[in-house]
Design goal:
Layout lengths: L2 E10 L2 E11 L4 E5 L6 H8 L7 E6 L2 E2 L5 H10 L1 E4 L11 H6 L13 H9 L16 H15 L3 E5 L7 H16 L3 E5 L3 H5 L3 E4 L8
Parallel strand pairs: 3-8, 3-9, 6-7, 7-8
Antiparallel strand pairs: 1-2, 1-4, 4-5
Bound molecules: adenosine-5'-triphosphate and magnesium ion.
Protein name: ATP-binding cassette domain-containing protein
GO cellular component, one term: plasma membrane
GO molecular function, one term: transmembrane transporter activity
Length: 217
Amino acid sequence: MLIEAQGISVAIGGGIVLDDESLRCKTGIMTALVGASGSGKTTLLHCLGLLLPVDKGSILIDGNDVTRYSAAARRRFWRDHAAFVLQDYGIMDEESVAFNVTMQASFIGKRVSGNKERLKQSLEQTGLKNRGNELAGHLSGGEKQRLALSRAIYKDANILFVDEPTASLDATNRRMVIELLADFTARGRTVIVSTHDSEMIAACGAIHQIGSSNSSH
Ligand SMILES: Nc1ncnc2c1ncn2[C@@H]1O[C@H](COP(=O)(O)OP(=O)(O)OP(=O)(O)O)[C@@H](O)[C@H]1O
Ligand SMILES: [Mg+2]
């Protein structure tokens, strides 16, 4: 799926956060959103993922203007096409690691359900093999980040929105996550990553510098 921003601007609390940003995020290419801390990477990622409304400009998906999508249409987009790995992880601490991946449980006994093989693979791919029965709240920050990625892999969405995926990881896990995202992209997915990490940026096929598409510059 092709996701585009055309001249989008966002003001939060009276301050301009994004000013006339335009970019195209193509299928099969990993796009990096780069810029200094506070430049608006997370804000732009949220706008592209329809999590945050824009004040000016348009968001397009496969050429269709979705800027004024209804709440129901946005929910359908999230459910059917998108996966998010955001800075606050979205992990449910009171639930098991496995439940956090499949997000499905049986009514009786609250046993985790879903596709067992895919669950196993998505945990293995992020280095969380055999950790499915642990309480998610007991994981470290970096492990929770990888758990959020396992959930996205399990969902196998068309579009992956990822905020600073390597920020709190050591070199080995960083490389693993970068390879994983590159592999996901190569399988015909659209991957958009906000990042400071030079290795992560090097693995991206397109780089969008915040502020660079501003027509007044
Ligand atoms: N909900 C909010 N309320 C007030 N200000 C906000 C809000 N969200 C973002 N901002 C401001 O918008 C600017 C951009 O924030 P954003 O989180 O998009 O930056 P970033 O490039 O992702 O930074 P970092 O690299 O530190 O994650 C910052 O100055 C921030 O303070
Ligand atoms: Mg950010």
